[in-house]
Amino acid sequence: MKILFQARPDFMKNPAGDTVQLVSTGQGLKNLGIEVHFSADPNLDLTPYDLVHIFNLTRIKESYMFFCNAQKQQKKIVLSPIYWPPIAFLSREGNHTNALAAWKHMQPMRARLIRESHLLLPNSQIEMKVLQQDFPETAPYQVIPNGFPDSFLGALPDPFREQFPAIPEEFVLCAARISPRKNQLWLAKISQELGLSVVLLGPVNDRAYFQTLTSFTNVYYLGTLQGKLLASAYSAAKAHALPSWFETPGLSSIEAGACGTVVISTDQGSPREYFQDMALYVRPLHDQSLRSALEQSFQASPQPLMKHIQKHYPWSNISQMTLEAYQTLLQE
Q1: Nearest to 14 by CA among 204, 210, 175
Q2: What is the reported pLDDT for 87?
Q3: Is residue 239 exposed (0-12), middle (13-18) or buried (19+ Cβ within 10 Å)?
Q4: Is the pLDDT of residue 96 over 70?
Q5: CA–CA separation, 301 vs 279, rounded Å?
Q6: Rounded CA gap, 109 and 246, in Å?
Q7: Computed from CA positions of residues 82, 83, 89, 90, in that sequence, does the dihedral angle turn out positive or negative?
Q8: pLDDT of 93
Q9: What are phi and psi of 72, to 5 degrees?
Q10: Cβ(265)–Cβ(275) under 8 Å?
Q11: Which domains does the chain have, with CATH numbers?
Q12: In the chain, % of residues over pLDDT 90
């Protein structure tokens, strides 16, 4: 089987959740003996490929071009939407109204992909329900959840402690793009009120936002960590907080939970489908919800969520599910 992955051209230069999902799924499929290629060429000759798998409806322009090319060449099209309407985030006070207008203007393009792809692979049943609410006609679907690297199993705090000895013994971690959508500024403010240290990991998407964040004396920024050092950082933290405006469900929340860290998650999006009652939930900019979650996290046990995530969400499992979805589609 020969599969083509297509996504925004800058998925490696500006990494986000779709980057992790694409790379991890691709590697997992390769481990299963599947030939996986990536191209951002919207005019590529697709003759060698059994199907085209497109990632992400948020940056719709590139995805729409990939879709049109695949449809023109009569290829089977699989779509991972990674979809959540950002209305509350784009409508917040002080935001530019043109961002919301642009989102709405692009909805007909998204509707076509949702309607005319051969198979949708949403990351949760909640995500699919929202797709069905926003788009009256949808293609067949199968839920394929997000996951965590199998190599994170058994992570220990020692490598992180050895590399960053100046970090306080107790800290709250947030591994995510430095961006207003991830809401780290709110986390920094409430943590400062509680006398808690915050360690931030991830690429900087918004320089002005980053400078405001790092002006807080309780905030430590360590750049982007990967592999076993990232797993060690999760293991060293008292809690991992992702108080975003929405998540589907937040890859770093899954990874942190797998490493035995208490998870504090936004209640917006699909986190509850993954973490059930084993995480602490906050409502964006509802100060008391974050304050309570941070206070509770220091007494909460990470064990129930860790066992649940390790059982259900390793990338090796997710890749096998993806392959089976491909096989079913190609047999039809």
Answers
A1: 204
A2: 87
A3: buried
A4: no
A5: 10
A6: 22
A7: positive
A8: 59
A9: -60, -35
A10: yes
A11: 2-147+314-331 (3.40.50.2000), 150-312 (3.40.50.2000)
A12: 92
Which residues partner with 174 through β-bridges? Answer: 200
Q: Name the pLDDT band for 295 (thresholds 50, 70, 90).
A: very high
User: Where residue 95 falls among pLDDT bands split at 50, 70, 90?
Assistant: low
Residue 152: partners with Cβ closer than 8 Å, 6 or more residues away: 228, 231, 234, 255, 258, 259
Residue 270 burial (CB count, 10 A): 25
Element holding 241 (H helix, E strand): strand 239-242
CA-to-CA distance for 141 and 131, rounded, in angstroms?
Answer: 11
Q: How far is residue 164 from each of residues 23, 160, 177, measured CA to CA in Å?
A: 28, 6, 20
The whole-angstrom separation of Cα 199 and Cα 170 is: 10
Q: Bigger pLDDT: 44 or 16?
A: 44
Question: Which tens digit of pLDDT belongs to each residue from 106-145?
Answer: 999 999 999 999 999 999 999 999 999 999 999 999 999 9
CA distance linking residue 251 with residue 258, whole number of Å: 11
Q: Coil, helix or strand for 258?
A: helix
> 148 pairs with which residues across the strands?
314
- The CA-based angle 226-179-159, given to 5 degrees, is 25
Amino acid in position 166: A
Q: Please list the residues that pair with 98 across neighbouring strands.
A: none
Look up residue 167 and give its DSSP letter: S
d(CA 188, CA 166): 19
Give me 204's structure tokens.
């900087």
Q: Which class for 169: exposed (0-12), middle (13-18), buried (19 or more C-beta within 10 A)?
A: exposed
The residues near 276 (Cβ < 8 Å, ≥ 6 apart) are 308
Quick check: pTM over 0.90? yes
Has residue 254 got a pLDDT over 70? Answer: yes
